[in-house]
């Protein structure tokens, strides 16, 4: 009898320990059914109103915006081994006039907003007017700053209930591609609750419906059972704010979450050993220092900028520090980019060449520079460790680097205001949208944060924006990248592979060559 009681007690203790541990099987998922808990890198939630979600970067779009809202197009990630292209979404098909000025779009039928309002030509025009017409009651000039693609639009014509024609002011080759995140909100919701209502309770057509928001903690979405496409297998997605990388790993191990963004490279081996699944894939993601090249000082000299690029050991950072979760950046474009040409790979680790270039530029003993960097957030990778590694490497050629670490929103606030007091800013972003390069590669007059000026680059880039032939446009952008590589307006460091870690119970996810991901086929086993 005593033996049986002892056996039951031991079993009870083991069950309790296993329940608390979570382990690779995913404790939270086991108890909650088809609920996916995600640990996000975001430090705060953005406004939930359409374009404003973009202020949280690509992570805000993929974990919030793309769940609730949709655009006329979307990223095509049907082939995980190919760079993302353009696919239909709320627009079923389209045709383009020979002049490149008219885009006639057939809208998808049978689509409703989460509140039952119909998706049709009137709903589209209502939203476009809201973004572009100052006399619209829900106009917010801030939203248009996120949707520069709409500045090319002269007007929109209703052809019939499910056909519209966009008439552009000038040809714009990336019009279809850039419509992907021009999100559409329910006209009924906007009429009843206005922009403020949309910011706190978003109503779109997406595969998930907004459920609830716990300020500075989590946001919950429920399955849209009336979704026009593949209805999600998950009942709910809960996105939790866990900006600290170590805390995200701990949350995964404990079973608090089933999936983490931005998994720490140091943790990947032990997570795999514990039964968790790690996914990653090379894509067009730039982790770099953007240099202030137009101001007086060392960085105005091309030889100095080239010297910095020869002075850093990218291989060591990618292999030793990041454990193979990144690729060395030896030119402007990532190998996963549509515009990459291997023959343009330029920068290797060459201290002698770096010192020679600094000597020729008149800085044989180096110089001092200050760098602002984002401490956490969308695509930030391991910012403190990576920047400190660069600091140590540049010190070998006499360049003394100091840092100003800031959060995600502060970074872009300071860049927009100007007068940062920095010589460079460390950010991470994608170059897949050439139409959005203005802020990183344009002059101040064009909205460029770094006032970069290179006539040859500008000519090639701007010609590409109006070239409708795909091959010709790609060739122009490859040439523009070649010019930028030589001119070195950035310290080219690495390309992320977006390592994620998740419970072995999470199924149906295949990581694409893109920051864009979809959850419709994901489920908990």
From TrEMBL:
Pfam families: SBP_bac_5 (PF00496). One of its GO terms (molecular function) is peptide transmembrane transporter activity. Residues 86-445 form the Solute-binding protein family domain. The keyword Signal applies. Residues 1-21 form the signal peptide. Coiled coil: none annotated. Keywords: Signal. It comes from the Bacteria. GO terms for cellular component: ATP-binding cassette (ABC) transporter complex; periplasmic space. One of its GO terms (biological process) is peptide transport. InterPro entries: Peptide/Ni-bd, SBP_5, SBP_5_dom. This is ABC transporter substrate-binding protein. It comes from Bifidobacterium scaligerum.
């Amino acid at each position: 009898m005593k033996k049986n009681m002892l056996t039951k007690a031991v079993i009870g203790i083991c069950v309790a320990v296993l329940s608390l541990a979570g382990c690779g099987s995913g404790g939270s998922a086991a108890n909650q059914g088809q609920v996916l808990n995600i640990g996000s890198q975001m430090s705060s939630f953005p406004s939930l109103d359409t374009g404003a979600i973009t202020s949280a970067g690509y992570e805000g779009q993929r974990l919030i915006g793309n769940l609730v809202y949709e655009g006329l197009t979307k990223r095509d990630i049907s082939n995980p081994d190919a760079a993302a292209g353009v696919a239909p979404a709320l627009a079923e098909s389209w045709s383009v006039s020979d002049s490149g000025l008219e885009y006639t779009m057939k809208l998808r039928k049978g689509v409703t907003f989460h509140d039952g309002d119909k998706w049709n030509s009137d709903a589209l025009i209502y939203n476009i007017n809201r973004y572009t017409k100052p006399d619209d009651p829900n106009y917010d000039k801030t939203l248009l700053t996120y949707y520069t693609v709409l500045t090319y639009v002269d007007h929109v014509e209703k052809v019939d209930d499910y056909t519209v024609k966009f008439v552009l002011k000038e040809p714009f080759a990336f019009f279809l591609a850039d419509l992907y995140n021009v999100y559409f909100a329910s006209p009924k919701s906007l009429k009843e609750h206005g922009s403020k209502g949309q910011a706190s309770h978003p109503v779109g057509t997406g595969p998930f419906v907004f459920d609830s928001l716990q300020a500075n903690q989590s946001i919950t979405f429920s399955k849209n059972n009336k979704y026009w496409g593949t209805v999600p297998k998950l009942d709910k997605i809960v996105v939790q704010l866990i900006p600290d990388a170590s805390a995200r790993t701990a949350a995964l191990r404990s079973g608090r979450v089933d999936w983490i963004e931005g998994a720490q490279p140091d943790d990947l081996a032990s997570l795999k050993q514990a039964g968790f699944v790690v996914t990653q894939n090379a894509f067009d993601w730039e982790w770099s220092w953007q240099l202030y090249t137009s101001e007086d000082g060392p960085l105005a000299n091309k030889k100095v900028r080239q010297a910095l690029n020869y002075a850093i050991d990218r291989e060591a950072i990618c292999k030793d520090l990041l454990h193979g979760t990144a690729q060395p950046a030896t030119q402007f474009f990532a190998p996963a980019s549509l515009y990459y040409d291997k023959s343009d790979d330029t920068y290797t680790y060459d201290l002698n060449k770096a010192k020679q270039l600094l000597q020729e530029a008149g800085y044989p003993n180096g110089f001092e520079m200050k760098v602002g960097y984002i401490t956490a957030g969308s695509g930030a990778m391991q910012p403190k460790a990576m920047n400190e590694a660069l600091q140590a490497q540049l010190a070998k050629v006499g360049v003394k680097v100091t840092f100003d670490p800031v959060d995600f929103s502060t970074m872009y606030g300071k860049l927009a205001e100007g007068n940062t007091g920095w010589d460079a800013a460390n950010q991470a972003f994608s170059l897949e949208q050439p139409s959005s390069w203005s802020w990183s590669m344009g002059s101040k007059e064009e909205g460029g944060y770094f006032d970069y000026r290179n006539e040859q680059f500008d000519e090639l880039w701007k010609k590409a924006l109006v070239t409708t032939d795909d091959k010709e446009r790609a060739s122009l952008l490859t040439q523009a990248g070649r010019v930028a590589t030589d001119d070195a307006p950035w310290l080219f460091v690495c390309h992320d592979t977006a390592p994620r870690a998740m419970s072995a119970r999470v199924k149906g996810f295949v990581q694409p060559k893109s920051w864009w991901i979809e959850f419709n086929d994901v489920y908990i086993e």
